[in-house]
Amino acid sequence: MGRELSPLGKVIKKRLIDINKSQVWLAEIVGMNVKYLHLVLYGERSGKKYLPDIIRALGLDEELIQKIA
């Protein structure tokens, strides 16, 4: 069985699908490495430094993200 996305990863992935954007796009917009973004999505890194930029880029609910991050 493969690894599972973290709760934060699931929210980010769903939003990317909803707005028809890729992980590569998100990584470029927020100035992070795609491999690092992958680690954040799978809960292996917190990515807290990038969360405000991710929230802005994807138009996410900041309070929701703070609860699950």
Structural class: mainly alpha
CATH topology: 434 Repressor (Amino-terminal Domain)
CATH architecture: Orthogonal Bundle
Please state the overall shape, judged from the principal axes of the Cα atoms.
Answer: globular
CATH class: Mainly Alpha
Secondary structure: helix percent: 55-70%
Description:
62% of the residues lie in helices and 0% in strands. With 69 residues, the chain is mainly α. The chain has one domain (7-67): 434 Repressor (Amino-terminal Domain). The protein is globular. The mean pLDDT is 95.
How are the SSEs placed, and which strands pair?
Layout: H1 7-18, H2 23-30, H3 34-41, H4 51-58, H5 62-68
Question: What features would you highlight for this structure?
Answer:
434 Repressor (Amino-terminal Domain); about 70 residues; mainly alpha; HTH cro/C1-type domain-containing protein
